[in-house]
Amino acid sequence: MIVASAAALLLAACGTKQTTSSSGATVSVDGPERVQGNVVPLNLTATGFEIVKADGDTSGKTGHFHIFIDREPVAAGAPIPTGEGIVHSAETETKIMGLTPGERTFTVVLGDGTHRRIGTAVAKTTVTVEGPGLDASAPASVKAGDPVTVAMKLDGATAVAADGDTSGKTGHFHIFIDRDPILTGPIPKEDGIVHTIESAHVIEGLAAGDHVIWVVFGDGAHTSFSEPVMDKLTVAVA
Question: Has domain 14-129 been given CATH number 1.20.120?
Fold first, then answer.
């Protein structure tokens, strides 16, 4: 009993929990105790189960991770939805962004190729996000020709016009449209990059297909904070 109690304390200190599911698979998660900015790196592992991108397989032998943020996971066998607070990932090193400051709890389960939860394996960790925080949102899909409005909520910093301030207290939004975000060095003003202090921005003329939009909060020198404050969106144009 003494050994069991010590093991439980060790797991609590590490913020990692691992459970065997009814299918024999296990899942585990490891993350930092706290982060500055609003990006949390998680290391995910699974045993007795092959991690692959969603491919429709329902054999119970393959699938991917599903991370529930500050919410309980669905029951075993239930479909796992998409949407706010749920991340689907086939990456063992997954970065969770778009977070607000405070204590965030991440609960990880396994799902098959149709996003249905497999077994009862679950892992959980809690991370303190020190901020600033940035939460961006946009419609998941729009009709061709319709504009896309990106809304941005900032917590822990103030949006102002670029004034050279690099204190980490003020800055402005940088929206990257279908291009990778720039997290080191100055962010230029060019096609596909929007600089704005407004809490909403309208994107016009997106072609049919899937589009990736990154929002990065940068300082008065147009540089991302050293500990990134960012979010990622995907919009489908039908």
Answer: no
